[in-house]
C-alpha cells in the first residue's frame, strides 16, 4: 500500500483463507515464538491470485529467506509459488546435469560458515541457521546448513545448494546463454522443450542416480519422500526413450571443487558428453583419405527446420551446446577432426581477370548468365577456401558451386553459392544438403588486366604415376597479374631472372587446384584443374634409344612395327597467353608445348639447359626441376651460356649433365608411354664400341639406376638390360646393320655398315648375315665437317649469312651443337638452293675437299680392315664390299655430291669405291655406297628390330681395333695390320711414321685424276708422290699435330678411349689442312 503521508510503500500480505490453520497473535505488536513450520503454513494459507508472472515473496524476515522460500514452495503443493519454483528448480538441476555435455560455464565454490565466524555477516548466518526438519542429509559434527556450495555462471553467482531443496537458483540470476533462461523475466524455466531426445534420456538417468542417492545420508524421511516425488515427477515430464546409456564426467572436480556433502555427491559428476555421429561432417569425394571436416554454422538448424540441440557436432556437443568462441580461442580443441565456420569457406573479395576465356585449362562453374563487368566478359578466380579441395575433387566441387549474377543498386554483384553435403541425421545416408552463399560486389580495384604463363606437365593420370610438374612465369606483369602457390606440391622453386618471376613445382599427383596470390602472398582466388581420366596400363613397348654426340633418337616397337616415337604435347595450358611470350620461356625453363622442326622433331639435340636452377652441386641436379632437354632453334640457341651443356656423350667433365639428360629423356618417354596405356617398357640401348670399358659400364649403370627410380615413380615396369644382354644392349654398328637388313631390306652377304655420327663412326663388316668384325672410330661429322667451320667462322658468315656475334666465343662441343642445329634446320635448303651458285667458289671448294679427304680416309681404313680380316681368315672373299652409310654425319655425303643429293650415280661413289680398293689392295669393283633413307634413325630403329636373326650379336669377345698404321707401344714396335691389345695397365703410345696415311693421300689425289672427279679439286700445293719427301712441310706439321693428339692416349688403359693409329694420323692431317684453309 502507498502511504501518502510519508510517500513510501508499505508491504502488506494478502488476507488469509477462511479455512487456514494460522492463529492470530495474542497481543498485537508483540513477537510470538513459533516453530519454523509457521512460515509454510502462512504461505499455503494466503488467499492470493497473481496477475501476470508471479514473483517470489521477499518479505520473509530471515537472512535465509530465498532458500527457505524454495523449500516451502517445493514441499508445499498449495504454495502460490509452487509451480514457478518447481520450474526454476528443474532448470537449475538440468543446467548442472548437462554442464559438461552442453559446455556451460558453470563452476562451484564451497562456503563453510564455521570458518567465517569472524565475519559479521557469516556469523549472523550461522546464528540463524534454519532447522533441519526437511534436511536430506546430515554432516558428522556439523549442522547440514553450515556447508553450502555457491554456483557461478561466468563467475557470477546464480544459485546455491541447501540440505532441503538440493539446489536453489538466485532471484534474478544471470544465466546468459542458457537456453531455458528467460532473459526478459530473468528466471529459469523447465528445460524439457530445449532438450533433444538423447539429452532427455540422459537427464532422466542422471536424475535417477540423484533419486537413488537420497536415502543414503540419514536425511529426514518425509523430506526424502517429498524430494523423491519431485524428482520422479521431473523424470516423468522427460517423455521419450530412457534407454540411453548414461556416463558421468571423468573429471572428479568438474565444477572446480568436489561436491561431497551428503546427497550433493550426486551433483558432483555431470553427464558425460555423448558420442554420437556428427550431423555437420562434410561428406568428401570418394577415395579422399582426410580428417573429417565439421561445418560450424548455427543457421544449419533453421535451414533444416530442427532444434539446434538435435544437431550433433562432435564430442557430445550439439549446435545448442557448442560455444564457437571456445573453438576460436583454443579453449576447446579437437584432435581427430577439423572444423571451419561456413563463412570462412569464402574469400573476402572476388578477384577476376579482365579478359574473356583467360583460363582454358581452368575448371569454372557453368554460366547461368555471362560473367560481365563494364559490358565486357571476364574470367573469375574462384573465391573459395582451398580446404575444400582437400575434400572434393574439382569435378565434385564444381558440381556444388553456382555463380549467380545479381543486379543491385550498388553495382554488379555476384552471388557465389555452395551446396555442402553434410551427414545430417543418418550418418550421411542420404547426405543432408546445406546451402551457403556470399554476395560479392564486383569492383574495378579487383580486376587483373593480365595473366601469367601457367602450365602443368603431364596432362594425364595413371595408377602409380607420381611425376608432375607445374611452371609459372609472371611475364613481367608484376601487380597486373597474380602469383601462384600449389598447395599439393612436394617442393617448389621460386626465382627471379631479370624483371621476371618464375616458379617450378614438383608434385606426386596431378594438381587439383592452383592458389592465386597477390604480391604479398595473400590468397585472392583459386583455379581448379579438371582431373584427367585415368588411363589403364595394359600394353608394352620396346624402346630403342640412340644417345648420340649431336642428336639423340628414339624408336618404338609397337606390336612388331618399328616407328619413331611420337613427341606429343602433354602440357596442360592453364592460362591463355601470347604465343611469343609463352613458347620462349617454355623452351628455356620448362618443357615445350611443341618440338622443332614440327614436321620431324626427332632426333633431339643432345643438349641440356640448367637455366633457372638454384642447385649448386652438380651431383644433386634433378631432371626437369633443375635441368631439362633443350630444344634449340637457329636464333634462340646460345650454347656459350653457362646454363647450356653440350658434348654430353664424351666429356667426362659432363657426367652429371649426361645423366640429367638421360633421366629427362627417360621420364618423357615414360610419360608418352603412360599416355598410351603402356604398362611395360623394354629398353634397348646402344653404345659406340669406341667406349672404354669404364665408359660402357658407367653408361649401363646410369640407365640401371634411372630405370629403377622411374619404376617407383611411374608405375610402369621398366626393364633395363645389363651389359651382357646383347639383344637389348648393342653397339651402334650392330644396330645399324639390323636396320639396313630389316627396315630397308638390304642383304648382308658381303657388306660394310657405317653409322657415321657426330663423334664416332661405328663400323661393322658382314658376310652371309654373320658379323665378321665391328669397331668404332672417333672420326665422324665433327671431324669431317664441323671443325673446319669452327676454324673459319667467316665462311659461315658469308655463305650462311649468320651473325658472327651469336657465335663468338663458341668452341668445341658448344660450337658443334649450334652448327648441328643450323645444319639440321637450314642444311637441306642450303644444299638445294645455295650450293649450286657457290660450288665453284674457292672457299667452298676448299671445304668440300677437306670433307672428301676425311671421308675417303675413313673408307681407306675400312679397306685396311677388309684386308686384315681376309688375311686372318675371318673374311672369306678377296673383295671390297658395298657400304651402307647412316647416321647424322652421313648427310655430309650430300655436300660431296653434285646437285647436293647423294645417290648411286654420284661421282663420289667411284672415289669411295677406289679408296676401299686401295686400302684393301683388292680390285676396285666399283661397289656402291648406299645412303640411309632415314639418316640418324638407323641405330634407334635397329635397336627395336629383330626380324632377321643375324649371327654374331651374342659374341662376348670385343673385336680389337686394327691399327692401320705402324706404331710403338711402351717402346715395342707393331706393324699396321696388328690389332690394338693393350694388356698393360700403363700405356705410352707413339706413331713415328705415317706410311699408310701418306700413301692414302697419294691414292686419293691419283683417284681424283684417274676417275676425272669434277666436283672435288686436289690440294693446291700437294705434290702427288707416295712418300713424304716432296711434301715435308705438310707432313712435319701433321706429325706435330699428331704428337699433340697422343698426349691424351697415355695413362691407365681402362680410362683410355683407344683409336687406331691410322685414324689418329688422319685426324691430325685434317686439322692441319683445315687451319690452312681457314688461313691460320
Automatic annotation (TrEMBL):
<dbReference type="InterPro" id="IPR043129">
    <property type="entry name" value="ATPase_NBD"/>
</dbReference>
<protein>
    <submittedName>
        <fullName>Uncharacterized protein</fullName>
    </submittedName>
</protein>
